[in-house]
UniProtKB/TrEMBL annotation:
Keywords: Carboxypeptidase, Glycoprotein, Hydrolase, Protease, Secreted, Signal. Gene3D superfamilies: alpha/beta hydrolase. InterPro entries: AB_hydrolase_fold, Peptidase_S10, Ser_caboxypep_his_AS, Ser_caboxypep_ser_AS. This is Carboxypeptidase. One of its GO terms (cellular component) is extracellular region. One of its GO terms (molecular function) is serine-type carboxypeptidase activity. It comes from the Eukaryota. One of its GO terms (biological process) is proteolysis. Belongs to the peptidase S10 family. The keyword Cell division does not apply.
C-alpha cells in the first residue's frame, strides 16, 4: 500500500511539473521532466529542527552498477549562496534558458551524466535550508563541516546502495573553504569510525575558490594590470589596499580584514568598469535572479520537496554576516592533508578576476606537501576537446590544476560540456588525468570527451 501511495504521489508531481510552463522545454516526454531522484531535508543536529535542503539526481547513463557509480556532491559559495544556482544555471540535468521565458532545457554538460549528483544548500539558513535559530548558523568552518558531515551521513542512510559508492565533494567560490573543511573533517572522523560508519571520500574539487585569502588578496592588482585593465598608478593604489588587508589578516583582525578585501574588490570594480569581476569578458553579470523567479513558484517548491513558506534568495545576508569573520581565514592546511589522503582538483575559468588563476597559483606553490616540487616541475599540457582548445592541465600525483578556456567564475555555466568532461576524466582518471604510469603519450594533449 505504501508503495502504491508513493508511486501515486510521484505521478501527481510529474503531472504538476508537466503543466508548469517554466518547467517544460518544447514538449518533453514526461519521463525526462526534471523531478529529482530524491529531494527534501537532511537533519544536521539531533537536538534541533535545523535541516539542510537537498536535491539528488542519480546517473542518467551509468557505466557501472549503481553500487559502484560515484556520487558527486556540489556546494555553492557565498558565503550563503544556494546550490540551486549550481543546479539550474550550471551543472544540473536541466538549465534555465533566460531567452525563453524561464523554460528548463536539458543540460548536455550535466554532471550527473554518468555520476550521481547531490546539491546541498549549505550552511543552514541558505536557500531552502532551515536554521531553527540564527544562533545555530555556523560562524566557522568547523561548524560548517560538522553540519555537512551529519547531513551527508543522513543522505547515505537513505538508500543501502549509497553506502558503497565513492564520494567526491565539489564546489566553487567560497566553497573553496567549505570543500576542504568537510573533506578534512571526514578524514578525521573516518579515523575514529568503523568503515561502515565512515564516508567513502575519494576526492575533492574546488572551482575558482577562496581558500588561502592572505595570498589570494595580494594578487588582484597584478592580475588586472597584466590583463590590461588598469595602469601602473592604479596598480600601485590597489597594492597599497591589498597590503592593508594582508596586515589585518596577520594581526588576526578578521572582521576588518574582510572589510579591507571588500574595499580592494570595490576599487578594482570602479577602476575597470567591468560588468562583473567574475568574468572580464561579460557584458552583463550572471543572471542569478532568474533562479529566484523560477523558485518563487509554490508548485516548483512542492515539486522539489522544499518548504513552501520559505522565500528563496540566491545569497543569504544573514549567513554572510554570520561568517563575516571567517572570510579571511585560510584552510590551506586542510588541502595539504587532503592531497596526501585523496585526490585534489583545483580549476579556474581563465577570465575570473576575483578568485582566478593567478590567485590560486599564489597559494598552491606554498603548499606543505612532499610532492609540491614535482608538481611545480610537471608539464602544463594543452587540453583539447574534439580538436578544440579547452584549457590547460597540470598534474602530478594526487594534485591536478586546470585552467578552463572561455570561462569565468562559474565554469560549468560558461563551459558546460567541457566542465563535464573535466570532472568525469578526473574522477575516472583518464585522459590527461590518468596516473603517470598509465598515461598514453598519444593522447597527452587531448581530453577524452567521449560520450558513453
Amino acid at each position: 500500500m505504501e508503495s502504491i501511495t508513493s508511486n501515486l504521489i510521484k505521478l501527481l508531481l510529474l503531472l504538476l511539473l508537466y503543466f508548469l510552463p517554466c518547467f517544460h522545454a518544447k514538449s518533453p516526454p514526461t519521463s525526462t521532466l526534471p523531478l529529482p531522484t530524491k529531494s527534501g531535508y537532511l537533519p544536521v543536529n539531533p537536538t534541533t529542527n535545523s535541516a539542510m535542503f537537498y536535491t539528488f539526481y542519480d546517473a542518467q547513463n551509468p557505466i557501472s552498477p549503481l553500487t559502484q557509480t560515484p556520487l558527486v556532491i556540489w556546494l555553492q559559495g557565498g558565503p550563503g549562496c544556494s546550490s540551486m544556482i549550481g543546479n539550474f544555471l550550471e551543472l544540473g540535468p536541466w538549465r534555465l534558458n533566460c531567452d525563453k521565458h524561464l523554460q528548463l532545457e536539458p543540460n548536455l554538460g550535466a554532471w550527473n551524466r554518468i555520476f550521481g549528483l547531490l546539491f546541498l544548500d549549505n550552511p543552514i539558513g541558505t536557500g531552502f535550508s532551515i536554521a531553527s535559530s540564527p544562533k545555530e548558523i555556523p560562524t566557522d568552518q568547523y561548524s560548517v563541516a560538522k553540519h555537512l558531515f551529519f547531513a551527508i551521513r543522513s543522505f547515505i542512510e537513505l538508500d543501502p546502495l549509497f553506502k558503497s559508492r565513492s564520494i567526491y565533494i565539489t564546489g566553487e567560490s567560497y566553497a573553496g573553504k567549505y570543500v576542504p573543511a568537510i573533506g578534512y573533517y571526514i578524514l578525521k572522523k573516518n579515523a575514529q569510525l568503523s568503515e561502515s560508519q565512515g564516508v567513502n571520500l575519494r576526492g575533492v574539487a574546488i572551482g575558482n575558490g577562496l581558500t588561502d585569502p592572505v595570498r589570494q588578496v595580494a594578487t588582484h592588482a597584478a592580475s588586472a594590470y597584466f590583463s590590461g585593465l588598469i595602469n601602473g598608478k592604479q596598480k600601485t593604489q590597489l597594492e597599497k589596499a591589498q597590503l592593508e588587508a594582508v596586515k589585518l589578516i596577520k594581526e588576526g583582525n578578521w572582521s576588518e580584514a574582510t572589510n579591507a578585501r571588500n574595499r580592494v574588490l570595490n576599487m578594482l570594480q570602479d577602476m575597470t568598469g567591468l560588468a562583473t569581476l567574475y568574468d572580464l569578458t561579460r557584458k552583463v553579470p550572471y543572471e542569478f535572479e532568474l533562479v529566484g523567479e523560477f523558485l518563487s513558484s509554490e508548485g516548483v517548491k512542492k515539486a522539489l520537496g522544499a518548504n513552501v513558506s520559505i522565500a528563496w534568495e540566491d545569497c543569504s545576508d544573514v549567513v554572510g554576516e554570520a561568517l563575516h569573520e571567517d572570510v579571511m581565514k585560510s584552510v590551506k592546511f586542510m588541502v595539504e592533508l587532503l592531497v596526501k589522503k585523496s585526490k585534489v582538483l583545483l580549476y579556474q575559468g581563465q577570465f575570473d578576476l576575483r578568485d582566478g588563476v593567478v590567485s590560486t597559483e599564489a597559494w598552491l606553490k606554498t603548499m606543505k606537501w612532499e610532492g609540491i616540487d614535482k608538481f611545480q616541475a610537471a608539464e602544463r599540457k594543452v587540453w583539447k576537446v574534439k580538436g578544440e582548445l579547452a584549457g590547460y592541465v597540470q598534474k602530478w600525483g594526487n594534485l591536478s590544476h586546470v585552467v578552463v578556456s572561455g570561462a569565468g567564475h562559474l565554469v560549468p555555466a560558461d563551459q558546460s560540456v567541457n566542465s563535464q568532461i573535466m570532472i568525469e576524466d578526473w574522477v575516472l582518471e583518464r585522459g590527461l588525468f590518468a596516473n603517470e604510469q598509465e598515461a598514453n603519450p598519444s593522447s597527452s594533449s587531448t581530453g577524452n570527451g567521449f560520450y558513453v
